[in-house]
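Deviation from plan, reported transparently: coenzyme A complex.
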Amino acid sequence: MKTPTLETDRLTLRPVSIDDAPAIQKHFNNWNIIKHLSMVVPWPYPDDGAEAFLRDVSLPEMAAGKAHTWGVLIKGEPDEIVGLVEYTEGKASGGNRGFWLAEEFWGNGYMSEAITGVQDFLFFKLGIESMIVVNAKTNARSRRVKEKTGARFIGDGTLEHRSGENEVEKWEVTRESWAKFRNKGIQP
Ligand SMILES: CC(C)(COP(=O)(O)OP(=O)(O)OC[C@H]1O[C@@H](n2cnc3c(N)ncnc32)[C@H](O)[C@@H]1OP(=O)(O)O)[C@@H](O)C(=O)NCCC(=O)NCCS
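Because the crystal trials were delayed, the predicted structure below was used instead.
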């Protein structure tokens, strides 16, 4: 399915395009964001990091129908993306998800709102059954987003992060648990 634009109360989640590279470069090139991510993300962040990510990874995966990557826009703010939410298909795990938001906007509930919109799409429209999501143990903000978006803690694991931390918490969200969390019943 083609990645749709999603609307929530305060946000627009728009499929990324190559034109978003300058905004991503500006907001993502920040140690306070990248230290919480896996070693897949280069640091120091290259000058063409955002463009290379979109051109070589994100856009080809979206074109192949293997991933959905949304840019996060805040209604009432300038028309530029200030964060990303990515969902990548995975046969064994049901798929993976990653997210980040520009530091100046943290703590307003924006990412929890974005994830709510994305999970409505993934579970109720795309029809996936489940998804495993992880965060570094020290990443309290990311843990809180999971707690606020219906994820169930399923155990510890390891994944090398830019910060040097290896211990992660693993969480699962299923269509059924998300439907209960949303108190809507499972959508057709
Ligand atoms: C994780 C991230 C996306 C959260 O975005 P956000 O819009 O601030 O998230 P929300 O406001 O929806 O939720 C954050 C929660 O963490 C809480 N929080 C903030 N600082 C905290 C702290 N130091 N310790 C614990 N919780 C904290 C907030 O109070 C909020 O919870 P609340 O609504 O119950 O009060 C953002 O911090 C970020 O981009 N971090 C760097 C990248 C990253 O970590 N990505 C995820 C990798 S797994």
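Residues 68 and 87 are 5 Å apart (CA to CA). We consider this an acceptable substitute for the interim report.
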